[in-house]
Amino acid sequence: MTELLIDDFSSGETLVSMNGSVPQLKRAYQAGSMQGGVRAVHFHQVTNEYSLTGSFAVRKHAFVSSQPFHTNHRFEILYGYDLKGNPNPFSLDVSGFKTLQLSFEGMNGGLNFNAQLLSGTVSRRILPGTNMGESAESFNVDFDLRRGSSFQNPLDLNQVDDGSDLMNIGAILVIVQSAGVIPANDYAIKRISFI
Is the distance from CB of 145 to CB of 122 less than 8 angstroms? Predict the structure, then answer.
């Protein structure tokens, strides 16, 4: 196996914006050719000191985020749900893959990345997250599928296991959030896939 595409953002175009000085959450659901047929996006503005407008869009094969000065944000991009936000699990066997990969076109500030895989045999596998600074170049964020934790020992993020819970993945959660000292981020995700 070379790649199992989850989303290349070629369908489900949308534009969601929000502003205000209090924490907010907007949920958006797009149907299309992504894995499971639906992409759910939970857009959180945790702080927005100047009440400026932040947004995300799916356009031209990219998930594009634009967050203003002093705005802490968090995106939860989910697969395995229906257009109303109810669980609609698929059944993916990703045991033959080594990595869940996010491909970025670039970003102008620090971000934190996390991922979780939900399965029918083990409730959830938490893959170790990472932080990265700005990059004008394209880059990938790789989550090692063999490292992480499942409910058998959820506090041990360095355990290496046999991957048995990777044979029936029902949902995928990707988290991208502010990590800079002064949050303000623009970035584009081009692809999410197992390799």
Answer: no
Which helix (H) or strand (E) segment holds residue 192: the answer is: strand 186-194
Series of mean pLDDT values for 10-residue runs along the chain (195 residues): 93 96 95 98 94 96 96 95 94 92 93 88 73 90 79 46 73 92 90 97
The conformation of residue 61, written as its DSSP 8-state character, comes to T
Q: Which amino acid is at 194?
A: F
- Residues 106, 180: Cα–Cα separation, whole Å: 15
Q: How many CB atoms lie within 10 A of CB 112?
A: 15
* Cα separations in angstroms, 125 against 44, 110, 111, 173, 175: 23, 25, 21, 10, 14
Q: Would you state the structure tokens that stand for residue 22, as one six-digit string?
A: 């209090």
The DSSP-derived string for 159-191 is -B---GGGGSEEEEEEEEEE-SSS---EEEEEE
Q: What gap in Å lies between CA 18 and CA 161, rounded to an integer? A: 41
* 105 token code pair: 């076109």
Q: Is the pTM of this model over 0.85?
A: yes
The 3-state DSSP composition of the chain as helix, strand, coil percent (nearest 5) reads 5, 55, 40
Distance, CA of 95 to CA of 73 (rounded, Å): 32
The pLDDT assigned to 151 comes to 44
